[in-house]
Amino acid sequence: MLLTALLLMPQAPAQQVQEPPEEDVNPNAVKEYTFNPLQAAKEIKVGNYYFKKGSHRAAAKRFEEALKWDPNSTEAYLRLGHTRAKLGDHSAARAAYEKYLELAPDSKEAESIRKKLSKENVKRQSGADGARASHGESR
After folding, report:
1. What is the extent of the structural domain holding 46?
2. What predicted TM-score, i.e. pTM, was given to this entire model?
3. Which pLDDT tens digit goes with each residue over 56-74?
């Protein structure tokens, strides 16, 4: 008797899943960034994981993402410099290191970064001198 009563009771219509409005589904939407140091710290943490794993491209993307959330993150610039150097993009590494030094000239890593940059200058100059010598341009 209870079973027949339940079967005869009108049932509520099944809920339909409501699709989000068209404008919310745009995959090409530009992401807006506002100052968010907590999100930047999360991106750096994930970037460090990728760096240790050896996925340097993924790490670089995370450090760049961190800089979008916090454009003055010295840690993100330092890590991005290390990562770009590992990838062989020395001009991008140099730019990241220089920005790091601009923001944190007295940090404990600053002196080692300055040495690294000066060694790179010596390599560039000796490489240019060697190229001139090999082309018969020495005087």
Report:
1. 35-133
2. 0.70
3. 999 999 999 999 999 999 9
φ, ψ (nearest 5 deg) of residue 16:
-90, 140
Report the alpha-carbon distance of residue 26 to residue 34 in Å, rounded. 20
Residue 123 lies in a domain: yes
CB neighbours of 85 closer than 8 A, spacing ≥ 6? 93
Q: How far apart are CA 92 and CA 112, in angstroms?
A: 18
Residues 6+ apart with CB under 8 A from 75: 44
What single-letter DSSP state applies at residue 71? T
In a domain, 42, yes or no: yes
Give me the number of domains the chain comprises: 1
Residue 114 lies in a domain: yes
Per-residue pLDDT band at 122 (split at 50, 70, 90): confident
Residue 37 CA to chain centroid, in angstroms? 14
In the structure encoding, which two tokens stand for residue 77, read together?
A: 């610039």
Q: What is the CATH number of the domain that holds 128?
A: 1.25.40.10
